[in-house]
Design a protein that fits this description.
Length: about 150
């Protein structure tokens, strides 16, 4: 799918605030409502736009601890991986999970209320899947967090 400058402007506005009206977006990108709607529809149909969500304030909701969890495993069989991925998908505390190249096999971003809640998460995870080594790093301060792509 080809994306032009107007599409990029629309995408930038949607990333900034997807709750804007079509009129607001059209005004900001120098177009009118119908062409903007048609472009958004095409971007959605083309898979460029995914689901729309709302960003919640985790701390105001009591989720004050973010842990980055480094996992090393000696298991690399398909059965183990399927079980591991299922365990991650079933845990709402896991906000992100990445398979890595290098010494660490996986990194997880885990958001919980406190250290005790992290321990409950950790104990549940290791009871379901065998891991070789787990290192948990507590984030002391979130300096930057965004889902916006540099269009």
């Amino acid at each position: 799918m080809k994306i032009d400058d107007t599409d990029r402007k629309i995408l930038a506005e949607l990333q900034r605030d997807a709750g804007q009206s079509l009129d607001e977006i059209a005004k900001k990108v120098g177009s009118s409502k119908t062409p903007v709607w048609n472009r958004i529809r095409k971007l959605r149909e083309g898979g460029v736009l995914g689901q729309q969500t709302v960003v919640l304030d985790a701390e105001k909701l009591g989720f004050e601890a973010t842990f980055f969890v480094l996992i090393r495993t000696s298991e690399h069989e398909a059965d183990w991986q399927a079980k591991f991925l299922k365990a991650l998908r079933e845990r709402p505390e896991v906000q992100e999970a990445h398979r890595l190249a290098g010494d660490i096999d996986y990194i997880l971003k885990v958001r919980v209320k406190n250290a005790r809640a992290y321990d409950v998460f950790y104990q549940a995870l290791i009871s379901e899947v065998k891991v070789h080594n787990v290192t948990a790093l507590l984030s002391m301060e979130e300096i930057k967090a965004t889902t916006a792509l540099p269009l």
